[in-house]
Amino acid sequence: MSTIKTAKGVLYELKKAGYEAYIVGGAVRDYLLRMPINDVDITTNARPHQVNKIFRTIPTGLKYGTLTVLYKDEKFEVTTYRIDGEYQDDRHPDNVTFSEDVQEDVKRRDFTINGLLLSDKQEIIDFVEGQKDLKAKLIRTIGDPHQRFNEDALRMMRAFYFQSKLGFQIETQTRDAIFELKDNLKNVAMERIVNEMIKIIQGEHAKRAFKSMVTTQVHEVLPGLKKGIEHILTMDDMPFVDSFFALCFTLNDGIVPQEWTFSNKHRHRYQQAAVLARKTKVFDAYYLYTYGIDLCLLANKVNFMLDRSKNLKSEIEETYQNLPIQSELDLKLRATEMIEITGKKAGAWLKDMQHQMVLAVLKKEMKNDKESLIEFLNKNIK
């Protein structure tokens, strides 16, 4: 975390060394909106090697003129004024040219509300009418929206993120450009889309952002999310991240598209919850034993959001607490005893027999005691 107060010290040190420097971007926007600030970025005409002489630094983005400055136990990204070259990958410029003009640096940025500068004297410098858009609660690109989105297609997702966070409206020309260029998102690395989607879902005004996704048809180029987002717009309460993806993939025929770069853990979680929600609305002892309480609760939440079921959270938790058996290790007849009784060698039959016993106990067809289990073993052994 970095603070405006400490950032002013960085500005002071840069100015003392003969350079210009300003706080820029989201920190200035949130400062004016009196919102919490987590990260403070600084822009300066000092070159990276000159910044390096003044502060302890980490070379986090030298190609783009960025260093992470370590100052008074806080971290700040400090970037040299620059003009971006051509963009070939819908994300990063092929090259950058350092500049002495802060106005040129501001013009390359994404939205007017992120193009404001704050000096060490608390002065706001505004070259792009960002304050006007803040007051009007508008998300507008700096300059031509087609150019901004062609430079970096992820900015379209960023527009939805700022809408979700701030509750602002996306300005008409900016929204129209998103509609026209939405297919460019297919060229953006999926992990970046995932990161923005998570922030959108977590925003206080997520429903407004989802509505804009539908208006611009962006939800149609996000694999497997179309039906889910359309359904979520009919809901009063917005889902959390796991519920969002599980619901979307349930409505996507229970399939998690391969394009999504989730961790194996999350991919498995969403896939299993989607399959389970489509399979059952009743989470009895069998399902709780087979899938676990976490997946059963998530699948029930999905069914509840889809109006297929009541919210059975309390009932599911109670059923789980009262399971007569929670694992094969809880069987009162040990594997070694089963081998001794049958005279058979250990093999696949043993695991299969244990599984049959567990299911019989769960279904309350027999008690979990040694006598009942031996009787079941003798009756079912081949």
TrEMBL record:
Domain tRNA nucleotidyltransferase/poly(A) polymerase RNA and SrmB- binding: 167-226
Organism the protein comes from: Mariniplasma anaerobium
Gene Ontology MF annotations: metal ion binding; nucleotide binding; nucleotidyltransferase activity; tRNA binding
InterPro entries reported in the protein's UniProt record: Bact_CCA-adding_enz_type3_sf (IPR050264), CCA-adding_enz_C (IPR032810), NT_sf (IPR043519), PolA_pol_head_dom (IPR002646), PolyA_RNA-bd (IPR032828)
Stored NCBIfam families: PRK13299.1
Official protein name in the record: CCA-adding enzyme
Domain Poly A polymerase head: 21-140
Domain CCA-adding enzyme C-terminal: 258-377
